[in-house]
Automatic annotation (TrEMBL), chains A, B:
Belongs to the FAD-binding oxidoreductase/transferase type 4 family. This is D-lactate dehydrogenase (cytochrome). Transmembrane segments: none annotated. Its EC number is 1.1.2.4. Pfam families: FAD-oxidase_C (PF02913), FAD_binding_4 (PF01565). It comes from the Bacteria. It is an enzyme of class 1 (oxidoreductase). Keywords: FAD, Flavoprotein, Oxidoreductase, Transit peptide. The lineage of its organism: Bacteria, Bacillati, Bacillota, Bacilli, Bacillales. Residues 39-216 form the FAD-binding PCMH-type domain.
Amino acid sequence: METTITSLIEELSKYLETAQITQNETLLEQHSKDESYHAPHKPLAVIFPKDTTDVQHITRCCSQFKVPIYPFGVGTSLEGHVIPNQPGISVDFSLMNNIVEINPEDLIVRVQPGVTRTQLEKELKKYGLFFPVDPGADATLGGMAATNASGTLTVKYGTMRDNVRTMEVVLANGTTIQTGTKAAKSSSGYHLNGLFVGSEGTLGCITELTLKVFGIPEHIAAGRATFPTVHQAIEAVVSVLQAGIPIARMEIVDEDSILQVNQYSELDLSIEPTLFIEFHGNKSGLAEDMAFTEQLFSDFDCTNITFESDTAARNQLWEARHNLAYAYVHGYKGRKMMITDVCLPISYLADAISHARLMLDIYGLPGGITGHVGDGNFHIVLMFDPHDEQEIQFAQELNEKVVAYALERGGTCTGEHGVGTGKKKYQQQEHGEALTVMRQLKQALDPDQIMNPNKIF
Amino acid sequence: METTITSLIEELSKYLETAQITQNETLLEQHSKDESYHAPHKPLAVIFPKDTTDVQHITRCCSQFKVPIYPFGVGTSLEGHVIPNQPGISVDFSLMNNIVEINPEDLIVRVQPGVTRTQLEKELKKYGLFFPVDPGADATLGGMAATNASGTLTVKYGTMRDNVRTMEVVLANGTTIQTGTKAAKSSSGYHLNGLFVGSEGTLGCITELTLKVFGIPEHIAAGRATFPTVHQAIEAVVSVLQAGIPIARMEIVDEDSILQVNQYSELDLSIEPTLFIEFHGNKSGLAEDMAFTEQLFSDFDCTNITFESDTAARNQLWEARHNLAYAYVHGYKGRKMMITDVCLPISYLADAISHARLMLDIYGLPGGITGHVGDGNFHIVLMFDPHDEQEIQFAQELNEKVVAYALERGGTCTGEHGVGTGKKKYQQQEHGEALTVMRQLKQALDPDQIMNPNKIF
């Protein structure tokens, strides 16, 4: 492999500048891991493309030398997506971070894959626009598309797949394609856009994204509602969904997580299971939606409900929610974080969360439950001691039990984090014969297995 | 081929009842065509599967004898999808028409592919639910998924692809897969669901669909607004979209089409470019949305706007819109209908429709413009004399010019009808290198080209 990488770098040097190719130890180290508990592996080199042409050269050269490519955004993955677990190169998109076009008339933007979520948000605000996919981390848009990320606003605005209109993708053989058009809908040919979003870099490198954006809603009201039990809170969520109230956000944070949030964000929230909710719309419509929600919540013994329509107060409320994972990392120094990520039909959600809490208690691991319960998606944030073999074992067993519970009820092992290496072992059970079809598609588009190999499959 | 079909029928007879296999001339004739102008071709036989196992036997036998399969719902396609343009068998799903499960708690239903839109609607009404994809025709859900159908409600509720949660599909080799899960979202593996919806029977036969359903909105208000010109009407549409008003339906019907509607539905609507609109929500929210819309419309010289919240009046309004294509067929007896179907970024929509009207006038063909303008999708319904070579030529040229106009502006050649055979010639221009990728996927999953061959590609 050492002579191969030398020849590859020699070949790449014909097309790229010296500064775009590095084997610096610090950089290799930085590209060896993500934000999760997965074991790091250093790449042989890190390459920084500046444009699509560079990416074409990189894929052609890597194809020629059969060296794997591991695309890298900012490394906020939670399932090991960016880790080079076979000898290969890391392709870092941080130099491709231009917002190419903001088109308020068509409500679309074009961005390079290295643009981060908050970078885009800041720019869109100037136009009265926003992009509605908000995972906790300040991930790149390329990474978010690769994993079909979602977040707190997904219950109203959808996932990345729903908000990517088309992408430019460089395939393993160096060919560049557009996965869709700029039209709002199409019945023309196979839906490559849906296939490439969520394909985790295993079918090609995303080099540009055209995204849907939305006008910042005229009126926003956010609120917090507390309940005696998580079970009652979730039943309240289900009743709101069934009533068809167009909720924009609906998040559960359990007692343990409220405790972490209070400590990390210096807040004084009541230590009870809490729903964080938000409504978008016109003034009178919101008032009626809030009143109806309050009425439904009272059927489930809601202990307190407060609304904030002031922007600063709302932002503080959601910042607390978004910082939850970091609150745990901060609160349990020396421990590693594992985040489960199942998603189920909503009728099973309350019981699934009770089961998850029970598992946490049985295994005696510190952690709490949070999630985008409007979608049926919840997370256990659990903190384990990476030097304690039994705790590692327990954490893994717990994850397996939570996943098994979801799969037995028609759910999925990952609602938004993706498969990477962490969820590979559940793919056969979840997909059955469909996994064979996925392998056939991978084989058709990447016969030499150079695009992020050994991920998903 | 004659001996092959005899052997195939002999083999199929081992698994199916005699009545499920027919070579009756009337039935062959009935399965030779769709509702459009495309030339009919009779199948060698028509097979009526009763369940998934039957479909597995059919695909295995057809694979063995390399006889093409042409899936058939009720034949409402407009682009020749169901036409056996190579010698093969038509597989008619009309016996697989059970609504398997209605699950109001999870807001999903399971149906067999032969269930029609109005059959489902009738049943869902009993539960206070509705399914939001409403093409004009009373198509089967299987056919609607195959073409990624959409309709008047798509601007709010999305296309078939957005509303199919998972499907059971029998592949060319007889393997049966589930394309997704029952969870509201997933980042697990490739998005096969999005790939199979809209694949027009070229990758497999749909044998069951799990669909999202919605509670019938608490309040619905529908209205009609007239404008001096189509251009102003479309500019009014764009302003409503940009203002983020959550419109549920937004349809244009031009003067010529209003004339047809009046005649066919015995109405007396003012002969002006008209927007048919609808709002779903709570009472006070609707009032505010309607007032804001009225205000925006007045900026574009709206001549009259009326709202109906009475159910019967609303139904009459939308029935008139839904019957538009039939109104043309009725109004121009002896002529054939061609419906164009482009979709563009909304900023180009007003000019695209002006261009379309100009083309109709230049070629001197009778017809009008209508469409789901909230999505940027519009149709020319044009009526040509099938015995007049020059009119046929003109109709085709017109279609080509309208498609070229859309493709040059980042649009698509088909917003909702699909490719079939009618839009094959535009695929290279629309998709470029991506078409090669589509071919590779087809080759991977149907190497013997037995699933609806020669469609899309």
